[in-house]
Amino acid sequence: MADVLPDVLAWGLRLVFCGTAAGPESARIGAYYAGPRNAFWPVLAEARFTPALLRPAEYAQLRQYRIGLTDLSKTGRGMDRDLSPGDFDIDRFWASVRHWAPRAIAFTSQEAGALALGRRKRDIAFGAQPVAPGQPAVFVLPSPSAANGHWPKLRHHWRDCARATGFA
């Protein structure tokens, strides 16, 4: 089965954002974080990961800022509640991290962080996560999805990540 969205990965990335899977609108139009009320693109500019607001269709331009994109499920699509455990390929994700060797990874939801780190969602706090020496820094960020009703009071974690990774 083909990937719903292509990875945006390259050598020398400072940060890779990783979600669970392409949302319904992202899958429909073929662009990351394309939901009409998703705050991903605005918060990238607000937190200074990017110097200007990009549109979802411009996702491949993130490479020029040394930022990558991927999902834990490359073939699944929909909201997290629509996905099954078999939709996720965690081994593939970590193999990509080892291959491309980004300096940091930021999971764009607690769900993505929990799945990738093999922990329960309730046991993961937002922010920097403990990592072994020599591993990329890992951050778990609140979901920018319109479905996240707590977004306004949690968006500061994105600014914290930008500062910690040298973007702001």
UniProtKB/TrEMBL annotation:
GO terms for biological process: base-excision repair, AP site formation. Pfam families: UDG. Keywords: DNA damage, DNA repair, Hydrolase. InterPro entries: MUG/TDG, Uracil-DNA_glycosylase-like, Uracil-DNA_glycosylase-like_sf. Residues 12-155 form the Uracil-DNA glycosylase-like domain. GO terms for molecular function: pyrimidine-specific mismatch base pair DNA N-glycosylase activity; uracil DNA N-glycosylase activity. This is G/U mismatch-specific uracil-DNA glycosylase.
